[in-house]
Amino acid sequence: RLFTRRTADLATGRIRYGMLCNDEGGVVDDVTCYRIADDELMFCVNASNVEKDHRWISEHSGTVSVENASDETGMLAIQGPASTEILSGISSASLESMRRFRCETIEVAGRAARVSKTGYTGAGGYELYVDAKDVVRIFEALLAEGRPLGLVPAGLGARDTLRLEAALPLYGHELDDCTTPFEAGLGQFVDLEDRDFVGSTALRRASQTSLTRQLVGFVVEGRGIARADYPVAVAGETVGVVTSGSPSPTLGKSIGLAYVPPQYGTLGSRFDVVIRERHVPALVVETPFLGKNG
Predict the structure, then answer these.
(1) Which one of 17, 29, 50, 62 counts the least CB within 10 Å of its CB?
(2) What's the pTM?
């Protein structure tokens, strides 16, 4: 009843991406759900939403026991083409055969870690859930093992550029309590058939109603960088808003995501992004940006 995806058929060691929604169908958070055991699930939530999500989950959990393990848990992500080789080098198991959206508990640098084939960069790799006191040890072991293969620390700025190039939503930008999964282009992560969950009534109704706005990807054609909250205009009239924008180091272009009415969101459509009172032309393109528009 908490999650937009089915969990009854989620096997141990498998993971699904989906959302927690409010009664109006707005997104409380987008999360990954892990089947840890027959009688145990784990949600990985957005760090900025820990208290909000814990409160919401507790209020809607019924007789289910809920534990907030955030303070005791550290998470590291190793991403990129050499991630399997690097992580396997300090792990108790080879990770070559692990498939996407799978997880298992193994030793990493001599410490227990729940390792999942997931990430938020579009580059492929792993996320590691470990005891908070072990984070530094494992971080340093990964750096030492990976330095010959080019591994370097990356902060949230680099992460944000990568997730934008992959057109992955960021809560508080593309998603919020007033935005439905359908507006955000995430309808495939809502299992409505033969299910009732918090928000399902509103989402059923929304699934049968024409959208008034939709999330689109765009490339800036003029000079300037689109940033979150910049207006989107057509013929001088504001019709939408940028949710995320950045220069793309990989593409060598300025890219972004925006909510606009459907008539302005078809591939090849053009609109202006208002950058410091300048109307800069932009082109609606297919997402993800990498691999299709590079």
Answers:
(1) 62
(2) 0.94
Mean pLDDT lowest among 103-117, 232-246, 278-292: 278-292
State the SS3 of the chain: CCCCCCCCCCCCCEEEEEEEECCCCCEEEEEEEEEEECCEEEEECCHHHHHHHHHHHHHHCCCCCCCCCHHHEEEEEEECCCHHHHHHHCECCCCCCCCCCEEEEEEECCEEEEEECCCCCCCCEEEEEEEHHHHHHHHHHHHHHHHHHCCCCCCHHHHHHHHHHCCCCCECCCECCCCCCCCCCCHHHCCCCCCCCCCHHHHHHHHCCCCCCEEEEEEECCCCCCCCCCEEEECCEEEEEEEEEEEECCCCEEEEEEEECHHHCCCCCEEEEEECCEEEEEEEECCCCCCCCC
What is the sign of the dihedral through the CA atoms of 103, 192, 177 and 212? Answer: positive
Query: What Rg do the C-alpha atoms of the chain give, in angstroms?
Result: 20
Q: How far apart are CA 83 and CA 16, in angstroms?
A: 21
For 76, list phi and psi in degrees, rounded to 5. -120, 145
Which contacts qualify for 175-181: CB closer than 8 Å, 24 or more apart?
175/19, 175/27, 175/29, 175/30, 176/26, 176/27, 177/22, 177/26, 177/27, 177/28, 178/24, 178/26, 179/26, 179/27, 180/21, 180/25, 180/26, 180/27, 180/206, 181/4, 181/19, 181/21, 181/25, 181/27
Q: Strand order in 15-21's β-sheet?
A: 15-21, 27-37, 40-44
Mean pLDDT over 189-200 rounds to: 97
